[in-house]
Amino acid sequence: MTYQQVNISSEDDIYVALSAVRHFMKRLPFSESDQQKVFVSVSELTRNVLDHACSKGIFYCELIDKGIRFMVIDHGPGIRNVDEALSGKKTSSSRGLGLGLSGAKRLMDEFQIETSTRGTKIVAIKWAGK
Ligand SMILES: Nc1ncnc2c1ncn2[C@@H]1O[C@H](COP(=O)(O)OP(=O)(O)O)[C@@H](O)[C@H]1O
Ligand SMILES: [Mg+2]
Question: What is the pLDDT of residues 41-64, one digit of tens each?
């Protein structure tokens, strides 16, 4: 199997998502630091589902040719101001340091956000052996 889907509704699900990612990353020549970068991104984005999207979302990850792609999808209220959220500034809705989203973007090689009042979908890729 080269993909796995995890429903995100509690803190434990974050760890299930992380172990899925670790399992897949072992199969490609990812450096230790690249693996850590993906772990941090996955924990921040899945935690955002718990903090900002009514604790209901789906994490999906798969091995693609020479990389790992993951998706975090929720049907929460959406990211009100994406530019501000990506700037890494702490806002009134911040539950943490406000660096989760901007950090995740910086740590991954490809990063796309689609967000509306009906929810948020983030797709990110890390290439192996770069
Ligand atoms: N999945 C999401 N749904 C709705 N809003 C979100 C989501 N993820 C992030 N946000 C918004 O973007 C802001 C920045 O997110 P982040 O950088 O992770 O900081 P923090 O979680 O510490 O507030 C959050 O404060 C929140 O307003
Ligand atoms: Mg966060």
Answer: 999 999 999 999 999 999 999 999
85-87-92-94 Cα dihedral, nearest 10 degrees: 70
What's this model's pTM, rounded to 2 decimal places?
A: 0.95
The CATH number for 106's domain is 3.30.565.10
The protein residue with its alpha carbon nearest to ligand 1, atom 19, reads 98
Provide the residue range defining the domain that includes 86: 3-127
CA distance 11 to 46: 9
State the Cα–Cα distance between residues 23 and 105, nearest whole angstrom.
22
CA–centroid distance, residue 99 to ligand 1 (Å): 9
Residue pair 101/48 in contact by the 8 Å Cβ criterion? yes
* pLDDT 10s digits, 21-35: 999 999 999 999 999
